[in-house]
Amino acid sequence: MLKKIKLSFWQIVNMNVGFFGIQYSFGLQQSAVNPIYDFLGASPDQIPILNLAGPVTGLLVQPLVGVLSDKTWHPRFGRRKPYFFIGALICSVSLFAFPFSSSLWMAAGLLWILDAGNNMAMEPYRAFVVDTLKPTQQPLGFQMQSFFTGLGQTLANVSLFLFPMVILGKTGHLPTWVFASFFLGAVCSIGSILWSIRTTKEIPPSEEEIEIIRTSKKGITAPLIEIFSAIKSMPKVMWQLALVYLFQWYALFCYWQNSSKSIALSIWGATPKSNPDAYEKAVSWTGLVNGWYNVVTFLVAFLLVGYAKKFGAKKVHFVCLLLAGIGFAAFPHITDKNLLFVAITGFGIGWASMMGIPYLLVVSSIPKERYGVYMGIINMMIVIPMLFQNLSFGYILKNFLNNDPRNAISFAAVLLLFGALATLFIKSKETKINLN
Length: 436
Fold this sequence. Notes:
Helix content is 75%, strand content 1%. It is mainly α. It has a two-stranded antiparallel sheet with strand order 1-2.
């Protein structure tokens, strides 16, 4: 195995450019898919179950891809890159097809395919950072992904604000601007992945590692056995992180599913059925608001690396979740649309931490031969709360929160504050950070 060398800042940029396209796609999912469901006639309590694709595909695809990429090596195509490429290709095709959805269930079906592609492309990227970078540069690598998360999702959300101003009319059941946003996402998805593939070389495994790959168990059940084995021997710190993720990711899905409808009610006093034109304005404004929190994310991503070095990753994540919870608490009570940007700034800071800082808490406890599978298991900690949310929140919203999306955002705020408290109980050994 070739020795890891210290990469320049721009080399770390190049290797993570692909994350931009993946996150552009996720940005459309967060801000555009649920309004599309609304345009196609979904009721508020149907939205959680219609979003079941994300957690289910993440639960199945990411750990499996993690195991398979751990056991893959090709002299030309590498270990993680084949999965980047195939996943991005699936994303691009799905994004192109999505606006042509003629029914609610067609859109839901395409979301399953899109999410499978996104998860396939994203999972190996976490392991790619650990494979390629020296331990002292790994924090910068993870926060570079946080930066591109913010940038990609910013542009996705800004497109939802700008395109309706210049692209008018409807095509089929949907506004024509929806087509433009998704077509641009299709180009970004495959284009950015190809950039990273062409500019970054993977480090070949040692002869011993290649022999392990050759002699590893084959067959359909082998990846599942590997996943369960890894869970059984999972470091304690990962179980502690799982509790934080339970609160954190349940809350985020509550926000993404209800932000447009909350803004429509608090600012315009409208629902998709009572005033479709006002609701379309709310969707457009939500794109701008969500774009702003992602601007905050890529502006503060690298600052968090420095704070993690000075104060520790645990304290940084605690403060960031606290700010996100405070922002969510204020969000549904705001009646001036411009003040929404102030409230959502807290979430932007929290989102920057969520996409990178938690990995610093666990990476030093993960054996290198299992980077892929453990990164997949961390994603299971993300998608299991999402799955739980999709299955349970429709009932909670209808029976306890008066089917009011503003109450859903308040509920999310409480969960984030619980997540912040749970962060304080994490005990980990943290890697020293190199900012260069």
